[in-house]
Amino acid sequence: MQGHYSAVTSLSLAPDGWSLISAGRDKVVHVWDLRKNTKIVTIPVYEALEGTIAVLLHAVFVKKVMRAQLLK
Q1: Per-residue confidence at 19, pLDDT binned at 50, 70, 90?
Q2: Residues 9/23, Cβ–Cβ less than 8 Å
Q3: DSSP class of residue 35?
Q4: Gap between the Cα atoms of 31 and 39, Å rounded
Q5: Domain count, the chain
Q6: What pLDDT is recorded for position 63?
Q7: Measuring CA to CA, which residue among 69, 66, 67, 51 is closest to residue 19?
Q8: In the structure, what pLDDT confidence band is assigned to residue 34 with cuts at 50, 70 and 90?
Q9: Would residue 33 count as lying in a domain?
Q10: In the predicted model, is pLDDT for residue 23 greater than 80?
Q11: What is the Cα–Cα distance from 69 to 18, expressed in whole angstroms?
Q12: What does DSSP assign to residue 27?
């Protein structure tokens, strides 16, 4: 999967086992669908992320991400 233009510094697998969240120094977060091997959404974060990501409430997170994309 291609998507980041700089080093990936954080990965998190969602509880469903099929969604992956990646973040890095290119100042974006990508949400991936591992079943389809595709990117679901890209979220600009305006800062390089060096920490880790934890997804505890995956359904709530994805719903908010999708709503944010629809409002653009």
Answers
A1: confident
A2: yes
A3: T
A4: 6
A5: 1
A6: 64
A7: 66
A8: very high
A9: yes
A10: yes
A11: 20
A12: S
User: Is the four-CA dihedral 29, 3, 21, 69 of positive or negative sign?
Assistant: positive
Tell me what pLDDT residue 51 has: 61
- CA–CA distance, 34 with 40 (Å, rounded to integer): 10
Tokens of 27: 């100042």
**How far, in Å, are 21, 32, 50 from residue 13 at the CA level?**
6, 10, 17
Which residue type, as a one-letter code, is found at position 60?
Answer: V
CA separation for the pair 47, 18 (Å, rounded): 26
Task: Write out the residue range of the structural domain in which residue 48 sits.
Answer: 8-70
User: What six digits make up the tokens of 52?
Assistant: 């880790």
Work out whether strand 38-44 and strand 19-24 pair parallel, antiparallel, or are unpaired. unpaired
φ, ψ for residue 35 (rounded to 5)?
-70, -45
Model-level pTM? 0.69
Task: Assess if residue 50 is contained within a domain.
Answer: yes
Mean pLDDT value of segment 20-28 = 87
